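#lab-general

N.A. 3:47 PM
ok so I finally got the sequence cleaned up, no stray characters, all 283 residues accounted for. can someone with queue access submit it? mine expired

B.Y. 3:52 PM
send it over

N.A. 3:53 PM
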Amino acid sequence: MELRTLRYFVAVAEELHFGRAAARLHMSQPPLSRAIKNLETEVGASLFERSSAGVTLTPVGAVLLEEARALLDQAGRVRVRVAAAAGAATITAGLLGDTSDPSATRLAAAYRRRYPHVEVRIRGTDLTDPTCGLHAGLVDVALTRGPFDETGLAVRELRADPVGALLRADDPLARRTTLSPADLADRRWFVFPQGTDPAWQSYWNGGEPREGPVVRTVQECRQAVLWNGTVGMTLVGHEPGEGLAVVPLTDMPPSRALVAWNEGDTNPLIRSFVEIAIAAYRD
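B.Y. 4:20 PM
back already:
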């Protein structure tokens, strides 16, 4: 069995959907389906039950999933150890904005345990560049949030988080249990500088053009609300700080936490980082 085929199988087994697995693998669905069919022929048993209700693992598929994950994990360790022996055991990771996410802390601990001899260089970036320097070639991999221009990048979703309106605690709207962007239509919003990725700017402005103070960091967002009574969006799960409140927003899609890297980059350190990030954010 080729490692590539096992990687295809694991993607389908985790997504339980051939279309989503193909998108995750950055390939079209027909060759993925053929690869799984060939693997089932090689194994001599069906790995998936396919029905109108969806895709499920067979008992044989469940066993192969456990073994395939172990094999891919070991292969990743081999690649990283070889890279370390060749003197290439350094990776630069970009982190967006507020890095207090417990999942990121779990990722750091897990990566350190797995690869203690790999040096991870951290480049923190403000909210004006959601790619954390990927497009500029400043980092190898990024922990960030969408949406943004993904041209030339490979992206995996780690988690989706609900968003809310960030308000002063004494704002009349702060007493509401929920709000919609329409409730904030006549308010001034904090905005990112001109030249910021349009998709990113639009999302964090609730999908509408806004006017208000220009901000670049999480702290500037909070201070803009405190000092000026402006509004904006933030994650519901983030502690806003003294004097501020967060009210969940309806009619807004959740914010997607992502890991991203340059498409086609075969650095084994990146692959290992991505795999451990997916596990850390899933826990």
